[in-house]
Structure prediction request, 1274 residues.
Amino acid sequence: MHEGLKRFKINDQFFGHYQKLVQEVVIPYQEKALKNEIAGVDKSYAVENFRLAAQMVSTGRCDGEFGGLLFQDSDLAKWLEAAAYSLAITKDEALETRCDEIIDLIAGAQHTDGYLNTFFTVKMPGQRWTNLYEAHELYCAGHMMEAAVAYHEATGKDKLLKVMCRMADHIAIRFLDEATPGYPGHPEIELALFRLYLATGNERYLALSKHFVDVRGVDSDYFISEIENRSWRQWGGNGKDKEYEQNHMPVRDMDEAVGHAVRAVYLYSAMADLANATKETALSDACKRLFQNITERRMYITGAIGSAYEGEVFTKDYHLPNDSAYAETCAAIGLIFFARRMLEMEADSTYADTMERALYNCVPAGMQLDGKRFFYVNPLEVVPGISGEVPPLRHVLPERTGWFGCACCPPNVARLMLSLGAYAFGESENTVFSHLFIGGEYETKAGKLLIQTGYPYEGTIRYGFAPEKESMAITLAIRIPAWSEKTEIFLNGAAIQPEIKRGYAYIKHTFQKTDVVVLKLDMEPRRVFAKNDVAADNGRVAFMRGPLVYCAEGVDNQGQVLNLLAPADGDLKELLCEEERLRGCVIIKVRGYCVENPKTLYTTQRPERRPCQITLIPYYAWGNRGKTPMRVWLPEI
Amino acid sequence: MHEGLKRFKINDQFFGHYQKLVQEVVIPYQEKALKNEIAGVDKSYAVENFRLAAQMVSTGRCDGEFGGLLFQDSDLAKWLEAAAYSLAITKDEALETRCDEIIDLIAGAQHTDGYLNTFFTVKMPGQRWTNLYEAHELYCAGHMMEAAVAYHEATGKDKLLKVMCRMADHIAIRFLDEATPGYPGHPEIELALFRLYLATGNERYLALSKHFVDVRGVDSDYFISEIENRSWRQWGGNGKDKEYEQNHMPVRDMDEAVGHAVRAVYLYSAMADLANATKETALSDACKRLFQNITERRMYITGAIGSAYEGEVFTKDYHLPNDSAYAETCAAIGLIFFARRMLEMEADSTYADTMERALYNCVPAGMQLDGKRFFYVNPLEVVPGISGEVPPLRHVLPERTGWFGCACCPPNVARLMLSLGAYAFGESENTVFSHLFIGGEYETKAGKLLIQTGYPYEGTIRYGFAPEKESMAITLAIRIPAWSEKTEIFLNGAAIQPEIKRGYAYIKHTFQKTDVVVLKLDMEPRRVFAKNDVAADNGRVAFMRGPLVYCAEGVDNQGQVLNLLAPADGDLKELLCEEERLRGCVIIKVRGYCVENPKTLYTTQRPERRPCQITLIPYYAWGNRGKTPMRVWLPEI
Prediction:
């Protein structure tokens, strides 16, 4: 398990609440969904598929049919990973017993040669490894490896870990020893093998991870020839859109983020893992170029990525439409994975700023505040009656749905929310990095850090110290977010001016139990403007406060948002939200203008404007109060 | 032929030029394309298909394969119709001879039972009438009927007219006498049969036209059952999206314009024809509701219709995206067809205003200024590098192309431009309606109207009179466009104030040869605003002058348009364009602001604005000077 994960106990209002929600609502709900126990939503079949696969393995027959999509195994794997994190946080014998039962089922579905995949075992026996392009075989293995590592580190139990090591060995024989050509259509196993290597120390897994990254795009026609040599197709792609699967060129040559956004950031995450392990500059340079291309040209203000529904892809620089965005929750999560690994590459606050942007905006928006419904797609503008209804906006739902047939996002949110410890801190030698501002206790080698904060609504973060011995002689490196214009740091009440390098304030000190470091961030609400090249945002302004992007929803603005004009100046008032459903978040009010709606479609009569109060809520909380229009970027006058 | 067509000789700078262009460039170019004589563009095969079909009919075999799309016959028909109009305007023996040869070919492709369609004759013999849903069989027949009527009226020759009467008879036997169920997937034959009825006086054609309109959508499952009973499919639709073909309900119940936009307005045009002929109020009321729904909720400022590429459809009220618009040239032409028929229903300037809007903006934008290249799709915003490249903007080309495999638009532009006489005037009893302001000579029963104008660039229209006898005792009903805020009318230099009814000024007078009526329209450039409901236009302004919509193109604005902010006030200067390529049109200059491009994707630093001159050109002329960004709706400050 990542160092930070087990050693950080979150205890704050924001993510503490989310963790509780995931533990109490999301994990039990998803378990029911995976077991087909929820009426009225798409059936998952994920657990049932393993039952059938185990029958097949033991008897050569089974009493049912494979259900759901061919990558259904990964839903169960992601849930199991989330459950493992939950167990690491809170002991829960009943949950652990149920996990063990599921793991028994999984182990039973493993063939004697180590192979494990319910789709191929139940539905397509004899077709193993014939469809790396579409069939997500390595992808599912990767997610199960991640679950295995997490479960082992959370509970000490190694049954699933052994199962997945055997599967990894099986894969290694094929692709390393026998040198069978190919690489996965959907990257994931690369980063999973890297985790398996960290967990086991087995360098063969590192080698296999590196192999898949190294060969990708070298034979960029691999999928085309695979399709020609195969008698079956799942969806019917022809393998010619090579950017889609990022096999258009060797990874070290890449400098633009292209294709399916989730695949892209999973691949880049593995590239960064390997670059960090091998110190290979060709690889780390590629990672830096790709990260830069995403965050400087292809990322929404919410940290969302993937501008287009068709192909769920990155498109071109600065093409960031608000209404037709794809902006998948999983892609933002993948960007967080990538950013964390880049932070390990170099302690530069840019990476943590990006991680924070996605973590406080796009990702929580993916989940209803009650934890029961989810968004795949996270648009920045919604007009009920049009969004979700018309081409090309059919994918843009104005309300979250319960459970999808393709349920990648919900368990991905769950596993991220329960593993934030791995993102909040970093350590290198004697330096402890505070990347994210989450309240709780973090255990370093020298003792505990005690973090108290009302972040993201309050900008004060207090660091207390509980040394193992007398004192802790460490460097506390605190990220100064780029958005904080006036930042103050105090040591025991006195302002200090520590050295700042690449966005981190380095406080080298022998901390005593009584010491307190206080970080005060600039929480003034602020106006944000986009580059001119982003056509959708021309003449528009967005509002942020701290790490949070704000939006206007009709429900707070007399039912409308398309009539709102934001003022170019004027105070932005912060208020505690009185709405029960928004859990006491800080809202912003600003005196702007409401435009009278012209009586005709087009008119030469300038529509009247009357001053009005515009209410803005945090973007992550949108869509929790029924169907109502929403807009992040408001026209400004 | 429509009354106005033969009796109006256009002679002005604007449409006179277009007519000349169509006659000298477009018709010869298209003839070559239809004969597969142009290298480097999609082959048409339209003429070749008729040659093959004629072989089939005479010998039962042919020496080639059907080429192009299954509705290829209609391209030739539309060209022939345009050629007929050209011959009506200008005698051209060589062209007429070539037309006659083509007509001989067409006549040879007719079966003895009257059936005529090259796709079914050459490629699918035995499958006639099995695929009304997709196969455009009645659609092609309709276009050829229109060509036949036009050619007869232009040349007096009736060979093609007789051919098409026999085809109409063949169809009437099937659908009227034998009462075979069914109606066309793509409306067109309804309005064509109506023209055939007007040209021949044969009421059976009126009855057949009315039949197709009457049965449409009554059995709204017709296409579904047709698909079930048929062994072949062309594209594979399932007939369940009934709005697409406007068979979701009986036509008299319709009140929203839905589905494929071209199909819709062709159907509505036929409905209006029939309502005008039969005076049936259920039908005329439906037409009025549909026209209102389009023009008050689903039409771009350019007169374009059809907001979505997928299905080329109307979507929902007020969904009018600028960048992803479909806005097909043919659909705007169909809206002109519909509007002209509504004008015959009631002399209300709303209809003529709409006709004018499409005719001066979307339709001419469909053709390059040199007549050689065409747009299918007429977006209101284009960013080269993104438009035409990324989903969902792949259909939005920043430059016109030469000839399409599906070449519906180019010949449609040609036939419209050469038949404007049918749109400019109307007559009822003793009243002559001047709907559009086009210079030339118009022959009424009592004598000629002589119209002189520099419209659309100048707002003065002079009406002179050349009575047959001493004088012309007529009522001259001149449209007062809704956009003209201050309009003056003079009779022999003295301001008059004639009665104005529903947007027409009725000047009842016994006109002498020396009389002159002068209409002075308000040509002040004006700012236009859209209803708030049009999300894409919030906070934005468009510019118009007279009937022309203006746009900003990068080529006139230091290469950029995304950086332009239009001023809420400030003079709009009109200048004669010095650009050779824009043919001396009037451009507009306004002092607005250029926004400095922020250095980062998102910034809290308000970008600097510097005053700058914004140059606007008429929308129809965009895209004639290389790839450059273009925007109609500018953010306003």
Observations:
- The radius of gyration of chain A is 25 Å.
- Residues 3-424 of chain A form a domain with the Glycosyltransferase fold (CATH 1.50.10.10).
- Chain A has three domains: 3-424, 429-520, 526-635.
